[in-house]
Design brief:
Number of helices: 16
Low-confidence stretches: 1-6, 32-39, 42-57
Number of strands: 30
Strand content: 15-25%
Radius of gyration: 30 Å
Largest sheet: 9 strands, mixed
Length: 622
């Protein structure tokens, strides 16, 4: 009788345990490899594998110290509680950011903070003594960050004037002055910056009557302006600096020269607090993502448009100039005029985008929803063609109301050009509830046209008559300013001014000067379509731990986005970077660490509709 150990198992000779081991061990090993891969692509590689170089000095956890100064409260006038409110506000912001935070006294600041903080906040700290100034210098030299507002250190602990030297040293500004505006003025915000990614370019924050600290600085993030984004009493934003972000050796500085609690209305304050939150993140060395604003990474989008009413003959001649100069444009006409001159309307469609200012010169504001919808449907029916539908509207007399938005949605329009009061230099996407559970939401893009039109520029022109080509100078200046802000520029002409045939030489000269390398020239519909796709992209960057950043890019739209670039501001400049996709088998985007900068450029060849890409950025892993 054969021994039990020699019995066969499933027809195989040999001990059972050997075969079991041969089957189980590879499965366990494979599971282990998968587990290690998952760990490697989430929290990081095991230290025992010696793949990590520790970089704790570069990515320390942020610790915020907010000065609650009894000295400054004592000189704040009849209501010292207003000053204490500023300290409480910043303490609240630090708590909302998830940072360790505490309030400190004048004496604690004077003794120095050492390693107890990485971010120091000085809200409207006008009065500082010598020890406090030196402690702030030492804090920055150690590679920490300072956030300050108002005329920092312009007075000593006895409230006696000592000058602007400390503020100049801290901010890099020159020739700082104190100004109390008597008229309504604004703080204009520059876009396309990491700390302003959640703030629309050209945001206009209203400034109530209070003391402003204004200086001269290179490329300020915020400047003192009027309602049309023009710097007050000077030629360029650098001469009216109200806010800066800068680095001082290894330290970082954020400064604003206006009261952060008094400024803005209810709508703009929400956006402004996003700016403050991002500034706090930047000061705390947290990763910040900046998605591109315009195609091909252009600095500004420019829309030439004309208002021609019933004068299709002048519109047709102006369209010749745009076509000859190869500049896209949108011309707004009354629908009834197109019916009377179908040949001119056909030529317009071949050369430019044809849009409407309604069925007549009668204003839409004040009319009920049904009446406005009827007029818009009539205009659309009179100008629509099977191949080129009418999608754009600019209200006559620049007057419209909430009912107009609903009427435009009902009539099937895609965008509205608004030349009334604007609080930003970027479009706004207005989404309407879907008509059914599975239906697609209707949307309308509001395009702000707040820049000076030809009627404004002609009124301020002091040159010779007939007008010379220097009449185009203010248009070009506004285009440059829009490029500085990173928003859109709208160049508006009228049938009886630059749209008139006798002024074609000026229009031609202007269009040639508008063709700049950093400007994306497009039609109103082209811009509306881009913005609709761009606004459905969401980018988030969060720190997983000391060495890794998780980045997610989501396209919520139903349209694919082509080449798209995201800049990632890193907590420090690493020596080595690698990207890991969180989805096995899916390649991360192309990337490049910019020379001598803490910026990682991420380039996506395309973003598919209704899809997400999630990956990890690993810093200094060997």
């Amino acid at each position: 009788m054969a021994n039990a150990a020699g019995k066969s198992w499933l027809g195989l000779k040999g001990p059972f345990g050997v075969y079991l081991t041969l089957l189980v061990v590879p499965v366990i090993a494979l599971q282990g490899l998968v587990y290690v891969q998952i760990v490697d692509q989430t929290i990081g590689a095991f230290p025992i594998m010696k793949r990590l170089r520790m970089v704790s000095d570069n990515m320390a956890e942020p610790k915020v110290a907010v000065l609650r100064s009894d000295i400054n409260a004592g000189f704040a006038g009849e209501h010292p509680e207003y000053y204490y409110d500023l300290s409480a506000f910043w303490n609240f912001l630090a708590d909302g950011a998830g940072f360790e935070h505490r309030l400190i006294t004048d004496a604690e600041l004077a003794r120095g903070l050492g390693d107890s903080a990485t971010v120091l906040i000085l809200p409207w700290t006008t009065c500082l003594d010598k020890d406090q100034r030196q402690a702030i210098r030492a804090f920055l030299e150690a590679g920490n960050s300072v956030i300050a507002t108002g005329p920092v250190g312009a007075r000593d602990e006895k409230n006696e004037w000592v000058g602007w030297e400390f503020l100049n040293e801290l901010t890099g500004l020159l020739q700082v002055v104190s100004i109390t505006p008597e008229e309504q003025t604004y703080a204009s915000f520059r876009g396309n910056q990491f700390y302003s990614a959640n703030v629309p370019a050209g945001l206009l924050l209203s400034l109530p009557q209070h003391v402003l600290a204004v200086g001269i600085g290179h490329a300020p993030d915020i400047y003192w302006s009027d309602a049309n984004w023009r710097p007050v009493s000077v030629d360029w934003p650098s001469e009216a600096a109200l806010g800066v972000h800068r680095t001082v050796n290894k330290g970082r500085v954020v400064w604003m020269g206006f009261n952060e609690r008094l400024s803005g209305n209810a709508k703009s304050r929400v956006l402004f607090e996003r700016y403050l939150h991002a500034s706090l993140q930047w000061a705390g060395r947290q990763p910040l993502a900046l998605p591109q604003t315009w195609p091909d990474e252009k600095a500004v989008a420019a829309i030439p448009y004309g208002e021609f009413g019933a004068n299709l003959e002048a519109a047709q001649k102006a369209s010749e100039v745009f076509a000859r100069e190869q500049v896209p444009a949108t011309l707004f006409c009354q629908s009834g005029a197109a019916l009377r001159r179908p040949a001119d309307a056909a030529l317009l469609r071949e050369r430019v985008e044809l849009a409407t200012s309604g069925d007549s010169a009668e204003a839409f504001a004040g009319q009920n929803l049904v009446k406005q919808a009827e007029r818009l449907r009539k205009a659309k029916a009179e100008l629509d063609t099977e191949k080129i539908p009418l999608v754009g509207f600019k209200p006559p007399q620049a007057a419209f109301g909430p009912e107009t938005l609903m009427a435009l949605r009902s009539a099937g329009f895609h965008y509205l050009v608004d030349s009334g009061e604007n609080d930003r230099a970027l479009p706004e996407l207005i989404e309407f509830r879907a008509s059914s559970f599975m239906g697609r939401r209707a949307e309308l893009t509001r395009l702000p046209a707040g820049w000076a039109q030809d009627v404004d520029i002609v009124a301020a022109y002091t040159g010779p008559t007939p007008w010379k080509e220097d009449l185009a100078d203010p248009f070009v200046r506004d285009l440059e300013l829009a490029g500085y802000l990173g928003g859109i520029y709208t160049m508006g002409i009228r049938e009886d001014l630059l749209g008139a045939p006798e002024n074609q030489h000026i229009l031609r000269s202007l269009l040639r000067r508008m063709r700049r390398d950093d400007a994306w020239l497009t039609t109103a519909d082209g811009l509306a379509q881009w913005w609709s796709r761009r606004e459905k992209i969401r980018v988030e960057a969060t720190r997983v731990h000391q060495h890794r950043i998780r980045v997610s890019v989501t396209n919520r739209g139903r349209d694919e986005m082509g080449k798209y670039v995201v800049d990632l501001h890193l907590p420090y400049r690493p020596k080595k970077v690698r990207l890991l996709s969180e989805m096995l088998g899916k390649a991360p985007p192309q990337y490049e660490l910019r020379a001598d900068e803490e910026i990682l450029r991420l380039e996506f060849t395309k973003l598919k509709r209704e899809s997400s890409q999630v990956f990890l950025v690993a810093l200094d892993e060997l």
